[in-house]
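Entry type: protein chain
Record version: 2
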Amino acid sequence: MAFWWKNIFTYNRYASICANVVRKCLKEEKRFDAEKRENVFLKVSSWVNGKQGESKTLPGGGGDRSKWLKTRLRMNC
């Protein structure tokens, strides 16, 4: 892998770009099925003194989820 390529893309970003291209090339009925599989859900739980607290389920597909998760991870570090 070229050095400049590593500085621009991570493997996850590269895989995401490839997946989007493949999805756009599919026929209409297959594309619909692939887009349904794309939705992801994230479940977050707080742990205090070794006990699990309240769990929150965050729907996928939104930029707000990423912003919330980054803020949350910064607070816990």
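Comment: Helices lie at 3-8, 11-25, 28-38, 63-76.
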